[in-house]
Amino acid sequence: MLVKVNRAAALALLTLLLFLGFAPASHAQLGITRPKGQQLLDGIVVKVDNQIVLQSDVENIYAQEVARAEGKPLPPDFKCKILQSLVLNKLMLARAEVDSVTVEDKQVNSEVDRRMAYFVQQIGSEKRLEEQYNKPIKTLKDDLRPQVKDQLTQQKMQETITGKVTVTPREVAQYFSRVPKDSLPYFSTEVEVGQIIIPAQVNEKAKQAALAKLNDLRGQIQGGADFATLAKKYSEDPGSAKEGGYLGFFGRGELVPEYEAAARKLEPGQMSPVVQSQFGFHLIQLIERKGNTYSTRHILLKPETGSADAGEAAKTLTKLRRQILSDSISFAKAAKEFSSDKITGGNGGLLQNRQDGGTRLPLDKLDPAVFFTIDTMKVGRITPPLPYRTDDGKDAMRILWLKSNTPPHQANMQEDYQKIAAAALNEKRNKALDEWFLQNRGTVYLEIAPEYAQCKVLDVATK
């Protein structure tokens, strides 16, 4: 029997499965090889031009979905659907290469850091992560980087195809009218929550202690001590300390600006003065240059924040809270001007629903720290400053604002226009992807392993 494929739906499925922002973290999502003792037999199951799909790609996603199904059977053709999604993304990559659609290394590195910080937070610590995979953080990041680059390239290619697609209010209404009344979704309690975050600043005493320690180490190295030996003993970068501080080769824009600027001023073997970056304080030694790349080692010290620093952040937030409650400044303006979280700060301080891009969040899906804080709050109230730890593990303080609380209800145009509009837009984008696929499916070479031949991954969808 011929398997019919809705290419856009399949692509959306893979996006849902693979992108960290849309689902809980897993080994497969983060592109990290399974821990030792859990290796799968691997092999190429599909070639799309010079792109390949591995058996483990399919099996990892399938295993994840089996676990998520909690005992409920998956459709018999579910592995075909996974493969179809993977092939569609490989087609995106193949065409991106032809069309010169690329992403910058700086963006890739930023996303790698974000995902790794999230995963470290989920597992408990960098040390536990390294122990589980028997690899240093730097190696895990190197393993993750190619997959992140592919995913960002796929995302950019999809945006190139669908970026100009929009829907009018009339199209939204027409979409809603086509949904059978007995099929309208029922939404649980939803809330809009705003936040303003101010990080704790490193106190001067801790900063001076770190500077003094690094300058002492610098003097020891100038006196003949081995840089790598001291890095192994003192550096607080777990990813490189075990390697004597060695970071490997990087190109322009791949490391934080302060680090790169200092490293590029050095000659091989030379050592920098103490350099401050967002990660702490560094001593940097240039090892080698190759074309536009360079390799370095470093010693990193991270001054700890203290209660006095959090107190300063709390004082600032307390003052802002009073001003907002007295209508001297709006929450949105205060978030934009003062919050260290630029994503919510640019959104009026409101947390975003990653599923539909809106600001209304299901109460039962909230982060527990937010849920237990706002669960008994009245609309319009703002919390006092509360301790907070950012995604990258830094201490901070924040205030939370309960903007709205919508009781459970069946979907309707008045209360759920944003969600309905997002669904209508998604449908229209899917059609644009279908059209793109029909135009480009014949431009690639496809080879599929016999055990997956029944999937017919490039068949036309039934409309």
Automatic annotation (TrEMBL):
<dbReference type="InterPro" id="IPR050280">
    <property type="entry name" value="OMP_Chaperone_SurA"/>
</dbReference>
<feature type="domain" description="PpiC">
    <location>
        <begin position="188"/>
        <end position="288"/>
    </location>
</feature>
<dbReference type="Pfam" id="PF13624">
    <property type="entry name" value="SurA_N_3"/>
</dbReference>
<feature type="signal peptide">
    <location>
        <begin position="1"/>
        <end position="28"/>
    </location>
</feature>
<dbReference type="InterPro" id="IPR023058">
    <property type="entry name" value="PPIase_PpiC_CS"/>
</dbReference>
<keyword id="KW-0697">Rotamase</keyword>
<feature type="domain" description="PpiC">
    <location>
        <begin position="291"/>
        <end position="401"/>
    </location>
</feature>
<dbReference type="InterPro" id="IPR027304">
    <property type="entry name" value="Trigger_fact/SurA_dom_sf"/>
</dbReference>
<dbReference type="GO" id="GO:0003755">
    <property type="term" value="F:peptidyl-prolyl cis-trans isomerase activity"/>
</dbReference>
<dbReference type="InterPro" id="IPR000297">
    <property type="entry name" value="PPIase_PpiC"/>
</dbReference>
<dbReference type="Pfam" id="PF00639">
    <property type="entry name" value="Rotamase"/>
</dbReference>
<keyword id="KW-0413">Isomerase</keyword>
<protein>
    <submittedName>
        <fullName>Peptidylprolyl isomerase</fullName>
        <ecNumber>5.2.1.8</ecNumber>
    </submittedName>
</protein>
<keyword id="KW-0732">Signal</keyword>
<dbReference type="InterPro" id="IPR046357">
    <property type="entry name" value="PPIase_dom_sf"/>
</dbReference>
